[in-house]
Structure formats: structure tokens, C-alpha cells
From TrEMBL:
This is Uncharacterized protein. The keyword Ribosomal protein does not apply. Its main location: endoplasmic reticulum. It is found in: Endoplasmic reticulum membrane. One of its GO terms (cellular component) is endoplasmic reticulum membrane. GO terms for molecular function: heme binding; iron ion binding; oxidoreductase activity, acting on paired donors, with incorporation or reduction of molecular oxygen, reduced flavin or flavoprotein as one donor, and incorporation of one atom of oxygen. The keyword Lipoprotein does not apply. Heme binds at C425. Its cofactor is heme. One of its GO terms (biological process) is lipid metabolic process.
Amino acid sequence: MSVSGLRPPRPLGSVSGLLEVTSLLGLDLLLLKAAQLYLRRQWLLKAFQEFPCPPSHWLYGHSREFQKGQELPELLKRVEKFPRASLCWLWGSKVLFTVYDPDYMKVILGRSGESKTHTPAGAALPSWYGLLLLNGQTWFQHRRMLTPAFHYNILKPYVGLMAESVRVMLDKWEELLSQGSHLEIFGHIFLMTLDTIMKCTFSHQGSIHTDRSVIAVEDRKSLAFFRLRNVFYQNDIIYRLTPDGHWNHRACQLAHQHTCFVINLRKAHLQKEGELEKVRKKRRLDFLDILLTARMENGSSLSDEDLHAEVDKFMFDGHDTIASGISWILYALVTHPEHQQRFREEIQSLLGDGASISWDRDPPLVYDQSALFSFCPTGVTVMLSFYALHYNPEVWPNPEVFGPSRFVLSPPTSHFASPPWPGNCIGKQFAMNELKVAVALTLLRFELSPYPSRVPVPIPRIVLKSKNGFHLHLRKLL
């Protein structure tokens, strides 16, 4: 017998067998998962059979219909064809149920119980969305602590501070008009609303226009929106390994550093000034004072994590929505000069030349406030699309026609400036006051006209924005 015949078998055969078994197991698991996805898709198709939708691909659904830059036009096409609600298949068995009928929305908004934020969409939102992402008893406790910060007596002196910030912006516009009548307004409005939120809610004096933390938070909001749109980014581990994930982590660090600075500075001031009642006698209380001194029913205060989340929420998110709202309102008035003049006449009858504006001299502008209901944010997962609701011809005849007075007598569920669910915007009145002050003072000083070669292109973001800004012609009124 040869020596070679006594050799043990080579390990290649055992490795090959192991690979074969592993491959078969992997194939079985893949087939099982595919069967689960298929059965779930069939179940969803049956569950939503009352809500038809355009044909979709079995894998990537309707995603190709909503290419970049075409989301809003495609949504409005669906509204015309399916006037109450529609399905959007994202991929495989993932589906988005979009609702834009007021009766359906009323039912959803009226449901009791906790809202679910532990979804891929909720996880993609920045952690500093604070009160917005809380549920149940935790939400109730935080809401109860924060509500005094937006009481009538707290908001009352803010109107003067808002007017001060708006006048600074309008003075800047006058300077720029010497170089030409054309102006891009959103950048200026963005900085004005940022200054306002810092002055009113944090008693900040000075400018943070060049602060890197402001840029970082804006980056985070953009990153959050694009994460919502990417299937693979829903997984935290995968997202952290991507360039966007690294960018998001760096932006979080910069924003957190600035928040720590603001909170620690105010804590030091409060320790020097003493108890809250003593502070109240010395100066006007603001949001941060109330946040730092508030106590829950059990006597505990907000944790450092919760405190940072709420401060970031109001410091950096409380101005972006207002800036977009002001910009869209002014553009709507630019394209409808007859309404612009009517607004101006109403404002003049209430405020004169606007040299002095305060809470007492700022009664509700019925016609002006009606226009604010035209621009609203959108939701997620079971998406209540306010944008689609406002363009729904079944609800609003001739939705493309700008007619603010139509909102005055309409049912409250047919338009939303701020969603009326139990967790609605705690700063709604603050935002509405700033919108009215900014629009009123702008119309008293300038006549606005369109810039035909740069028409705003709406794009969906965390708030509705314009892809190319807001370019207007301005003429100073005598």
C-alpha cells in the first residue's frame, strides 16, 4: 500500500460541505422572508382595497413616480384622481397611506391614546424635537411644565421685540435697494426670525448669524428629511456608517455644544439672582427661565437630556417654520396685488404708520390671518397631507385661486395652520403673532411686485420651502 493512500482526506471537502449547507440555509431563509413579504403585501392589498391607487411595481412600488422635484405635482395628480386618500407603495410591503379628506382627517385626529413615534420616520427625526416626539404621561408632564412659557402675560411684551427685529430687517432692505430693486428675501427673513426667537425666548442680545451651531442644526434638519426618503438609512447601524451619518453626528456635537453654553450661562445667572419670584421683579421672564425653574407634580425637574431637547427644539426649530410661512405669504401677496392692497389698507386702519406696535395695538387681522391657513406642513407614515387637503378640489373649488376670505367661514377641519390634535403646537400663538407683525410692517413700508425670471419652485422639506428662494421687486412707499 502506498504512503499516499494512507493520507487523511483533505479539509477542502468538509469546507465545501459546510459552505453548501450554509448556502442552502441562507436560500431557505431568503425564500421564507420573500414568502412573508408576499403574504403581507397581499394582506395589505386586501385591507386597503377601498382605497385604489395607480399600478405599482412589486419591489420598488411607486418610488419612481416621486422623483426629486416631482413630489408635489405627482401628489396633486393623485388628489384629482383619488379625492379622499391614496396609497403609495414605497418598496416591497412598505406602504404610505396618505389622507387629505377633512372627514377622514377629523377621525384620525380625534383618536385617543398615544401616538406612535417609534417608527422609522420617528427615529429619523432629530432627537432634539423634544415635546413633538413624546407620548402619554411623559408628554402630558412636559406639556404642563412648558405651557406657562407661552401664557398671555409672557407673550404680551414679545410683540415689541418682534417689531424691533422686523424693522432691523426692513432697514437692511432699504440699504440693499440702493443697489437695485430686486431682492432675495428668504435669507433675510430666516435671520430675522432667528433673532426674534433668541430675543424672546432666551433673552439673547447680539447676533449668532455666523455661529457654526446654527448651520449645524440646519444641516441636521436637511439630513433628517433625506433619511426619511432612503429605505436603507432607516437602520441606525447602516446610517452611522454612511457619509450622511458621519455628517449628522458632527452636526449633533456642534449643536449640543451651543445648547450647553446657553443653558449653563442662564443657570449661573439664576443662581446669582435667586428665587423665581425675585427674578420676576428684576426682569421679564422668558422660556428658558421657566424651563429651568419648572417642577413636575412629584417635585422633580427636567433631566439634562430633556432640557437640551426642549431648548434645541425652540431655539432652532421655532424660527424655520415661521420664516417659510412669512416668505410664502409675501409671495402670494406679490402675485395678487389687489389682495396686497386690501391687506395694507386694513393694517393702516389698525396701526397707522406702524411706528408703534404692541399687543394692545395688534388686534386680530381677520383678513390677514386667513391667508396664513394656506401654508402648512405635512405628516408621516399615515400621512395627513395638509398640502393636498388645501389643493383638494372636492373641498376647495378652484384651489389654485388665491382667496383668503374663503377660510373665514370654512369648517376648521378643512384647513390647518397648526394641527388641532391634543399635541398641537405649543408655540402656535407666538408664531401667529410674529407672522402678523412681519407681514404688517413689511406691507406698510414696501410695495411688493414679482420678479418674473425667478418664480419660486416649491419643494417638500421638514417645512415647505422654495428650491430657488424668493426673489421680489420692492418699492419703498412714501
